[in-house]
Structure formats: C-alpha cells, structure tokens
C-alpha cells in the first residue's frame, strides 16, 4: 500500500522545523518518493542544528581531520576553505543500509585472549567521538539483519556496548509506495522513530533551485507546468523514464555546463533532457525554450510594461499569476528603481485582483520597494481591498496613464 495516510505529511520547511526542535535522543524516519528531497532535507536539518562541542575550534579541527572524506562533509568543507565552525551546524555521516551487511553495523568478530569480541566500524565510532547526524538511508531496502542491528541505534543511540555522542542524532530514510521494491516494517521498527512523509510543494523546489543558481528557464518552465516536475501517479509504466526533482536539477546543471540553453534546437538539447526527465517533459521544455522570446521576465515588466504586454498578447489569469511570481522573486533579491515603480504600477492596474494582490503583499516586506510603487497604486489597492470593480471604463485590462508622484520639497 502507498504511504499516503500512514504517516503525517510535511513540507520541507515543516520537516526542518520539527527535527531541529526535537531532542537528540529522538530518532526520526523520513519517508517519501524517490528524488523528493529526503537527503537534501537531512542536510538542511543539520545546517540549522547547533552543538556546544563545535564552539571549541580544537574540536572542529579534530572532526575535520577524522571526517573530511565523508562526501557530504567534504562538499561543505570545499565551500568553507577546509574549516568547520560552530555556525555551520552538525556534520552528516551518511550510509546506505541497502548496501550493508550486519557486520557493517555490529562490527566484525575478532579473537581475544578470553574469546571473541566485535570490533566496531570506524564510522560508528566517529559518531561516538563527535556530534553528528547519523543518516541511515534506504532502511526498508536493507537486509533483515541490518535492520535489526539498527534497532538499538534508533532506540537508544547505542550499539554493542558503545553509545553515540550525546549531541549526535539518528535519522533514517525510506521510499514508500507500491511501485518500490522495499520491505515492510513491523510495528516494533516503526515505533522507534518519529515518522513523517516528506511531500514538499513545487515552490519549495523552485526556491531551492534558485538558491543553487539553476538556470531560470527551468524554474520558470516548472512554475508554469507543475505537473511535469515529477510523476505522482501510483502506476509507473515498466521501464519508462519519468521526470523527478533530482533529474530536472541535474539536467539543468549539465545543460548550462554545455551552453545548451541558448540553442534549444541543438539535437543534444532534446537528447540530454529526454534521457534525464523523459520524452514528454523534454519535448515540452524544448518548445518552451525555443519560444523564449515570447516569454516575459520581471525585468521586461519593470523596463516597459506596455511593450511587454504587447508581446504577452491576450493573457490568461494564470499567465498573470506567473508574471506576478516573477516580480515577487525579483523583489526578494533586488531594490526597485523609481522608473520600475511606475511600470510595476501599470502592470498591477492591468492584472486581475489575485496576482495584483500577490504583488502588493510582496511589496510590504520591503518599505523601500513599497515606496517606489505605492503612489501609483494606492487608490487601486483601496478599491481592490473593498472588492470594487477596478476595470477601466471603456476597455478591459488597459494600462492607465499613471501620474508620477509629487516630489517632496
């Protein structure tokens, strides 16, 4: 059966907030579709956690020396110049349980003078010496012996006479759904962790892509074609390539590296995206990029809305919503010039009430941006708030001639 309803569904923001507020002694199980962002969620969680241990620079140096080759930690160290500091959060040690045997958790047997003992693996001992997020992925693909070996880790942060550092945490991840070749967990396994199903919305994925400087063609396309981000139906056609969040992200990075976005007619463009996000999504995206001259950016709106509107043609309500979201994204990172404010005002006069209100709400978060636009739309927004008809007399959706605000003496 699908995991829907078997555990509470959370957004990425909810997930990070939940785990960052739980005590280190509570194990967490994150369920979700493949490529939905479980691993990225763990990285984001670790980044906001803090451990007293890492306030000491000497402790940070010891951890770096011991764990510098762990993939997630190495990636962070590459950005920080090889230095770990307290405000970087807690390092993540990731292991795929599906690739392990029982001895990789309990340790390997060794002869001693009194008999046989088990020598623990280094990666687990590292979690005892240093505060870490112990990320155990693909639990429900693991061998039964491996799953059993994780019981004590999840239940009491202990293994074969050893105990993880008091500030270490255990997080496991699983795929859910009938389409996956996974094992079911019995009640005893499930009871050992706070369990959630990660189901982030499209806007969270877009925000993440923007933070990683993914090409805007991709995020704009997905915002307008949300159904093409990933396949959510229960049924998967055998051997068919489907799009998912991870494949879009990786395809975008490769396309930019190969300079394909400026030449979507290059045969490699369709081959690349078709191989990574599937044929249907690739064809739609290629068409979008080929007609990019008909698309309108936030800069187009703020430079000359009249010209941009002519390019837009007869626009739907959703198209105005899309343009409003582009303006909102711009506002988050930039300041509006006086000439921009007038053009944004023209756009708001033409836009239907919903996208107009979205832009107005976004402007409230920055008083300098709000000041540039306020004089052009103050009366309009009063009417909008009152539910009055804001259509100009004689013509629907026609840009008004907006008088410039009076300059202060």
What would you say this structure looks like, in words?
By secondary structure, this protein is α/β, with parallel strands linked by helices. It has three domains: 8-198, P-loop containing nucleotide triphosphate hydrolases (Rossmann fold), CATH 3.40.50; 202-294; 298-385, no CATH class. It has 19 helices and ten strands. The strands form three sheets. A six-stranded parallel beta sheet has the order 1-10-2-9-6-3. A two-stranded antiparallel ribbon has the order 4-5. Helix 9 (202-211) packs antiparallel against helix 10, helix 17 runs antiparallel to helix 18 (353-363) and helix 17 runs parallel beside helix 19 (367-385). The protein is elongated, with a radius of gyration of 26 Å. 34% of the residues are buried.
User: Count of DSSP helices?
Assistant: 19
Order of helices and strands: EHEHHHEHEEHEHEEEHEHHHHHHHHHHH
Q: pLDDT average, as an integer? A: 88
Shape: elongated
Q: CATH H level of the largest domain: which superfamily?
A: P-loop containing nucleotide triphosphate hydrolases
CATH third-level topology of the largest domain: Rossmann fold
Q: Reading side by side through the largest sheet, how are the strands ordered?
A: 1-10-2-9-6-3
Distance between the termini: 70 Å
Q: Structural class of the secondary elements? A: alpha/beta
């Amino acid at each position: 059966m699908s995991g829907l309803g078997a555990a509470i569904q959370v957004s990425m923001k909810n997930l990070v907030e939940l785990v960052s507020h739980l005590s280190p002694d509570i194990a967490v199980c994150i369920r979700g579709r493949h490529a939905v962002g479980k691993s990225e969620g763990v990285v984001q969680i670790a980044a906001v956690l803090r451990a007293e241990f890492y306030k000491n620079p000497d402790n940070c140096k010891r951890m770096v020396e011991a764990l510098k080759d762990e993939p997630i930690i190495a990636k962070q160290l590459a950005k920080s110049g090889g230095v770990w500091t307290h405000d970087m959060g807690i390092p993540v040690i990731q292991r795929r349980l599906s690739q392990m045997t029982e001895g990789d958790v309990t340790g390997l047997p060794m002869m001693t003078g009194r008999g046989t003992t088990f020598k623990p693996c280094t990666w687990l001992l590292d979690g005892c010496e240093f505060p870490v997020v112990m990320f155990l992925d693909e639990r429900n693909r693991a061998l039964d012996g491996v799953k059993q070996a994780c019981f004590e880790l999840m239940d009491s942060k202990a293994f074969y006479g050893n105990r993880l550092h008091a500030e270490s945490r255990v997080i496991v991840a699983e795929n859910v759904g009938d389409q996956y070749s996974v094992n079911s967990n019995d009640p005893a396994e499930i009871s050992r962790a706070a369990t959630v199903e990660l189901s982030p919305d499209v806007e969270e994925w877009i925000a993440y892509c923007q933070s990683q400087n993914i090409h805007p063609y991709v995020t704009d396309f997905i915002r307008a074609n949300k159904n093409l981000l990933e396949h959510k139906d229960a049924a998967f056609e055998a051997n068919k390539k489907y799009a998912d969040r991870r494949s879009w992200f990786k395809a975008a990075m490769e396309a930019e590296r190969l300079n394909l976005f400026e030449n979507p007619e290059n045969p490699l463009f369709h081959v690349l995206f078709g191989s990574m996000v599937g044929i249907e999504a690739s064809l739609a995206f290629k068409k979008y990029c080929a007609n990019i001259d008909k698309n309108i950016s936030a800069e187009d709106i703020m430079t000359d809305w009249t010209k941009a509107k002519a390019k837009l043609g007869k626009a739907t309500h959703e198209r105005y919503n899309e343009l409003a979201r582009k303006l909102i994204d711009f506002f988050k990172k930039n300041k509006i010039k006086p000439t921009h404010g007038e053009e944004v005002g023209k756009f708001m006069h033409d836009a239907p009430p919903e996208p107009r209100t979205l832009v107005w709400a976004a402007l409230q978060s920055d008083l300098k941006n709000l000041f540039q636009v306020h004089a052009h739309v103050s009366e309009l927004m009063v009417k909008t708030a009152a539910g009055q008809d804001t259509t100009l007399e004689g013509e629907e959706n026609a840009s008004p001639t907006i008088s410039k605000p009076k300059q202060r003496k």
